[in-house]
Amino acid sequence: MSDGDFAAQIAEAAGKLLQEVRASQDWEPKALGKAGDHAANDLLCHAITTERPDDGLLSEERKCDGSRMAKSRVWIIDPVDGTREYGEARDDWAVHVALCIDGAPVLGAVALPDAGLLLRSDAAPALGPLNHPPRMVVSRTRPAAEAVAVAEAIGADLVPMGSAGAKAMAVVRGTADIYLHSGGQHEWDSAAPVAVALAAGLHCARLDGTPLIYNCDDTYVHDLLICRKELVSAVTGALVNSTTGNG
């Protein structure tokens, strides 16, 4: 089985398992989040360590033993991206499965189980026309000040949304044009979405334009921008003005 088919298969399987766990009883929200994370993580980690035993593995829900740092090929997974949305049975939570080679996110699968969607880098959809005005996805609960300032500067509409994967895939799918995140994440939050977004032809980088590099010893990613290439100059210009007080 190809890496692409494997990633898609296990992301979809984890999504179905998460739906089954949620439907299995009347859960208290925090308990559901823990149970879902645990079940999906077990499925994904077992599949990867069994089917790709020579590769490294980094998961939000698995203690890292450091062995991945010596590997060229490393799988980076997030069993449930958007635990709150998962518990609320919204459609903006995701399962992330990425393969990074020498730090580059070369392959990804992002399942949006409650939306009935599976997006993969080896079959990325063609980008449609830009939205007018542009649409920028932001956090449902805590929109970043930088994102709000940029949206105001370029005349973009704000679209509140849940998980990082759902936001990134909204740009891939064309329901949004910009995902600007400045509040910090970890590698598992963005590796798979960035792989899919890059394959679709989107701009994906740090806010200062430097590349996103994965399988680092410190998994913290300070910021990122996923957006249509046509809007990069406007977004970055507005971001500079907002941070220097000139806009």
From TrEMBL:
Under Gene3D superfamilies, the record lists: 3.40.190.80, Fructose-1,6-Bisphosphatase, subunit A, domain 1
Query: Which positions does UniProt annotate for Mg(2+) binding?
Result: E60, D78, D81, D189
Cofactor requirements of the protein? Mg(2+)
Does Metal-binding show up as a keyword for this record? yes
Swiss-Prot/TrEMBL keywords: Magnesium, Metal-binding
Q: Which InterPro entries match?
A: CysQ/Inositol_MonoPase, Inositol_monophosphatase-like
Molecular function per GO: 3'(2'),5'-bisphosphate nucleotidase activity; metal ion binding
The Gene Ontology biological process annotation of the record reads: 3'-phosphoadenosine 5'-phosphosulfate metabolic process; sulfate assimilation
Q: Which residues form a coiled coil?
A: none
Taxonomically, the superkingdom here is: Bacteria
Q: What is this protein called?
A: 3'(2'),5'-bisphosphate nucleotidase CysQ
Species for this entry: Sphingomonas panacisoli
